[in-house]
Amino acid sequence: MKKTLSLFLSVLMMLSVFTVAAFAVEAPELKNLECTYDGVALTWDASDDAINYLVYRAEGDGDLICIATTTDTEYVDVSAVENKTYVYTVAVQGSDGSVTKPNLADGELVVFVKPYCAHKEFKWVLDYRATVYASGKRHKECKVCHKNIGDEIIPQLKPATPTVKSVAVKPTNIVVTWNAVDGATSYTVYRRVVGGSWVNLGAVTTTKFTDKKVVSGKSYQYTVRARNAAGLSAYKASAAVKFFTAPTNIVAANAANSVKVTWTAVKGATVYRVYRKLAGDDAWTYIGNTKTTSYIDKNVAAADTYSYTVKAGDGKNYSSYDKVGASLTRLDAPKLTKAVSSKEGITVTINHVDGAKGYDIYRKTGNSGWVKIARVNSARSNGYLDKSTKKGVTYTYTIRAFNGTSRSYYDTKGITVKDVH
Q: Which of 34, 55, 187, 415 could form a disulfide with 68 if both were Cys (CB 3.0 to 4.6 A apart)?
């Protein structure tokens, strides 16, 4: 029994010794301690059964402080400050969780001084990009020591090229519009006669320009350049447009069974397009063209009110137009159906027409011209008594209907009568 107990105790002691030996871990020795451009570089030998290495550092005579935990056998202390004295040592954590105790006396001492660098190789590093609003910046970084060895300003970018959106022909000018461009502080507008050289028309801060110095009958192109502190953008020419001044002095007058429209000739124009609309309508309707400066509209109805406008052009290109135009009420030419001499004078009888608000009475003698002698402010008046006649004189009368500013045509022959009383 005593032998058995003694044997058991011997085996137990052997197992205990084996267990301690199996899990014992030793602190590694530093192989190398070197000053580099990035910091103090440490290397050490691997320890058996180590799962982590703990890097300790002391500043001068200070206490050791753990500054890193790693599974590698090397470490770079990038927080080291030049010209300071440091002591480094490494502890080990074993697989059983035990950690060796760092010892300041076992540490390695070093004064951190970065090595000399000639900065022979470098790369450009972008600090911030240039934009159309501001300049950018980049610097040279040494590939060896990573120091900034020089800055460079990147010039501000020029603005993008504006695109002309429209070249609109107006009655007396051309209006050019374009898209807004990021970073532009102003826009310079250019124009050229097709085939000619560009002319600077001036700078604006909006995206619209009115060219008032255009000549009727000429074809133009426009372009716009955006400007900022970096300079002018590139440019792109617009499509060509031929300019004609819109016809002016448009007059619409009642004629025999029609309306006659007239206007002032436009320089360079070879044809005119005539448009009409009824009172109350919004849209103009094309009714015909002519090579002269007048047009006869025969498709009209009595008492209707019409407006007329005209475009000038060359058959392919046309001007803008007077959006108001010339208006009139269509009035047929009235007639005087009878003229009778009496002691009071000569009485003329009126033939009424639709749409009239009243009538103007005209008279002449012999080969004289027509003279207006009276206005009858009644649409349904039966006639007019001319008391200013003289016995023995022969008179010819005619009449025109009116409605506002509209006046009818008239019977050019009229009616003739002799004052016999």
A: 55
CA–CA dist 207, 222 (Å, integer): 13
**What is the rounded CA–CA span in Å between residue 90 and residue 104?**
10
Three-state SS string over 288-300 comes to: EEECCCEEEECCC
Rounded distance between C-alpha atoms, residue 301 and residue 330, angstroms: 7
Distance CA 107, CA 55 (A): 11
Which residues, 6 or more positions from 156, have their beta carbon under 8 angstroms from its beta carbon? 130, 131, 132, 133, 134, 135, 136, 228, 229, 230
Pinpoint the alpha helices (H) of 263-357: none
Residue-wise pLDDT for 376-413, tens only, equals: 999 988 899 999 999 999 999 999 999 999 999 999 99
Residue 224 has a pLDDT of 98
Q: How far is CA 187 from CA 163, 200, 231, in A?
A: 12, 11, 11
* Residue 4 binned pLDDT confidence (cut-offs 50, 70, 90): very low
Distances (CA, A) of 55 to 41, 49, 69, 357: 11, 17, 6, 114
Give the residue from 28, 20, 172 showing the smallest Cα distance to 96: 20
Residue labelled with tokens 């619209």: 208
- Within its chain, how far is the Cα of 61 from the centroid? 70
Question: What is the four-CA torsion angle of 348, 353, 356, 358, rounded to 10 degrees?
Answer: 10
As to burial, measured by CB atoms within 10 angstroms (0-12 exposed, 13-18 middle, 19+ buried), residue 262 is: middle
Q: Where are the beta strands (DSSP E) in 179-250?
A: 186-193, 199-204, 208-211, 219-228, 231-232, 241-242
Backbone φ and ψ for 19, nearest 5 degrees, come out as -65, -45
Residues 334-357: pLDDT tens digits? 999 999 999 999 999 999 999 999
Contact 174, 192 (CB under 8 A): no
Beta bridge partners of 277: 307
